[in-house]
Amino acid sequence: xxxxxxxxxLIYPFIYSVIFFAQAQDYQISLLTCDPGDELYxxxxxxxxxxxxxxxxxxxxxxxxxxDFNVPFFYVKFTQRTLDYMLSLTTYDRFLVExxxxxxxxxxxxLDLSPNQIxxxxxxxQINYLPANRFYRYDFFYDNCATRIRDAMEEVLGDQxxxxxxxxxxxxxxxxxxxxYVYRLAWADFGIDLALGSVIDIDAxxxxxxxxxxxxxxxxxxxxxxxxxxxxxxxxxxxxVMEFPERSSELDLFNPYALWWLFAxxxxxxxxxxxxxxxxxxxxxxxFFSVLGLLGLLIxxxxxxxxHSQTKYNWNILWAFPGHLIxxxxxxxxxxxxxxxxxxxxxMIMANVTLVFWIxxxxxxxxxxxPLLLVILLRTNFLYYNFEKFNVKIAT
Length: 396
Known about the structure:
The protein is an alpha+beta fold and 396 residues long. It has 2 domains: 26-169 and 206-242, endopeptidase fold (from Nostoc punctiforme), CATH 3.90.1720; 256-395, no CATH class. It has 13 helices and 12 strands. A 7-stranded antiparallel β-sheet has the order 6-4-3-2-1-5-10. It has a 3-stranded antiparallel β-sheet with strand order 7-8-9.
């Protein structure tokens, strides 16, 4: 009996591995890539992992791009980047219902993984889905629904994964990459360029481009599995699950470009009338510099009081400066202090420095701010040279 048990113990691991690998063969692992939507939160597309068990028909989707709207102080945490995203689990059918409803295409790349690699991937996802592990601190560029899948593949395959990067790929900054997706959303494009700093004006490496689902889909299509038998492509099959007509990219007439240029023209006319009539029209400047000052406060809050890495070193603060609020308050008073004239010169210089930063590539600004810079230069120049002429009461 003892000899029999010894033999059984010796062959058990072999029997177990054969049975387990046979079960692993029943799994099909796929990358799902979803087209961008019409809203800002969906404008960059989406990625998820499909795990289909052929043995029992169970078809699940692991989704790293979900969060809980019921979290206390949701919007405060979202703004500060203290909101955790999580790995959620749903059925494949329910996943497709949402994208069909929103008319967003879905494509599938079936991965050519070995039984052992399939086992590791399923185990990785199961461990990640545990309540203690499913939450993570979201970062748009470096830790999102796409990069989590990329990192999972690298963890599971290790040195057997060769991304086979395109050495001739066009160099693009992180800002260039997101601009490709938000050009249709003119105000969102303006807001993003206003809120994000110079740290996103660096070239993204090919691996880093995978924070965007479309680029990760392309990377999976190029990738190879090496050192696990014959070298083979990571993707063995491509399927178009759902396809819809391409979204219209017509630019709304009410957009930052049109609005700010209209504003600039009105400012020019107002300044010309003021020069002819010897009037400052301080009400205009109070409103204008108040808005600029409030934008500056927003930039300061995002720069220094949140955990977003992309809002640091934001040189939009050169033209949208918080100190402009102090100028607006000073202009409200009948007896305006003499320092105000010096501040006009300071604001004028700051606007010119913005252009220097832009020209030398230290930060790329949204093109629609050109008319705003022109207005700043126009009004500060006008006020600097005419303030004492047209403003009767000057306090020293």
